[in-house]
Write a structure and sequence with these properties.
The protein is α/β, with parallel strands linked by helices. The protein contains 16 helices and 18 strands. It has 2 domains: 198 residues, Glycogen Phosphorylase B (Rossmann fold, 3-Layer(aba) Sandwich), CATH 3.40.50.2000; 176 residues, Rossmann fold (3-Layer(aba) Sandwich). The protein has an 8-stranded mixed β-sheet, sandwiched between helices.
């Protein structure tokens, strides 16, 4: 079985889609009957050994798999444009002759090139990560192309039922729909003895407080302002909010939090610090408010540590598929800071409830979002395509 993935970018460029593409590579690389390649745009990134430059077209290897990186000369509305991509895609299709192509959507520039390969005999899987929603002009511009892409696809895969049942294009997906949940990076989550010691120090620092932790870019859709508003509504409750990350809203969020000594900003933190905070916290706050948050892998990572999660209800998003209301945490009406404060108050006042949700959260991750479960689901999908 020959698998070609078409991703936006690839490691060492790091992002949600890029991580899923790498998870697929890692899941399949030990399968003896599987050969893989990945084609993507190049982007400035480095992991210390491998250095990528946006304008270069190069072939390299990551995880033992060839990565074809196409240099791009500009971007239009965040979409990379490459002169070498058509030639490189044609070459890999001619020489590698994949049985299955996994196309990570959205990627409209490449979709137009792929649809031009009409006589190619491969099965096409669309991994539908999210609709184009924010850029309405682009959505209208590529509407017909999307319909052609959907018609060409043999399977349309989403990380949650919401991805395939609540998409703008769901009615066109018909019987091609499949759910393939994302996986947490279990190796990244392994905590060292030194990090455990740091977690103990964090807990000691706030020994008389329930620790609520939140991490993410400080941008509007992350909803951090509602978390700060909820903190103020809680008055002198026995809780401290540790907020990690940076972004365009950092200064305005700090201004909003002035006078509330329950809110602490720790800035951008390392993976080691992140693991220590996850271990130390009692509650994980995930206050995103729009479908830009399509899945929320960060909450699944916290759940793997046995932490209850508090979220908002987000229409057409998979966030509330990961965290189940009343099972692994609490879900609140969207952007309702008062409801969020009430949910936190319930958790602060009941260690038993925190423990119950936390244990169920850990079980849910192992049963649904582990690397092993991802591999089992992926192999079933690919095998079904070639029967």
């Amino acid at each position: 079985m020959k698998i070609l993935q078409i991703s936006n970018y690839y490691y060492p460029n790091i992002g949600g889609i890029e991580q899923v593409a790498r998870d697929i590579v890692r899941s399949l690389k030990t399968e003896q009957n599987v050969e893989q390649k990945v084609i993507c745009f190049n982007e400035n990134a480095s992991n210390g050994n491998l250095v990528c430059k946006r304008n270069e077209t190069k072939h390299d290897f990551v995880d033992g798999v060839e990565i074809i990186r196409c240099g791009c000369f500009t971007k239009v509305r965040s979409q990379s444009i490459s002169l070498t991509y058509p030639r490189e895609l044609k070459r890999v299709l001619d020489n590698f002759m994949p049985d299955i192509v996994i196309f990570h959507y959205p990627n409209p520039f490449v979709a137009s090139i792929l649809l031009g390969q009409r006589k190619r005999d491969f099965k096409l899987v669309l991994y539908w990560h999210l609709d184009i929603t924010k850029q309405r002009i682009l959505r209208k511009l590529f509407h017909r192309q999307n319909l052609r892409l959907i018609k060409r696809a043999d399977r349309i895969v989403g990380a949650t039922p919401m991805h395939v049942n609540q998409s703008y294009y769901s009615v066109s997906f018909k019987d091609k729909k499949e759910v393939l949940p994302y996986a947490i990076d279990e190796q990244r989550l392994i905590i060292s003895p030194e990090e455990m010691d740091e977690a103990t120090r964090i807990k000691a620092r706030y020994a008389d407080k329930v620790i609520a932790f939140s991490i993410g870019r400080h941008v509007p859709y992350k909803g951090i302002r509602y978390l700060i508003e909820a903190s103020k509504l809680l008055g002198k409750a026995n809780i401290v909010f540790i907020i990690a990350g940076e972004g365009e809203l950092t200064q305005s969020l700090k201004l909003q939090a002035q006078g509330d000594d329950k809110v602490l900003f720790v800035g951008k933190i390392s993976d080691s610090e992140w693991r220590a905070y996850l271990q130390a916290c009692d509650i994980f706050c995930f206050p995103s408010i729009t479908r830009n948050e399509a899945f929320g892998l960060a909450q699944a990572e916290a759940m793997s540590y046995g932490k209850p999660v508090v979220t908002f209800t987000i229409s057409h998003s998979g966030v509330n598929f990961v965290n189940l209301d009343g099972v692994t945490g609490i879900e609140c009406p969207n952007a309702d800071a008062a409801a969020y404060a009430s949910a936190l108050k319930n958790l602060v006042e009941s260690a038993t409830l925190r423990r119950q949700y936390g244990l169920q959260a850990k079980d849910r991750v192992q049963e649904n979002f582990s690397a092993e479960k991802f591999k089992v689901n992926l192999l079933q999908l690919l095998d079904s395509l070639l029967k």
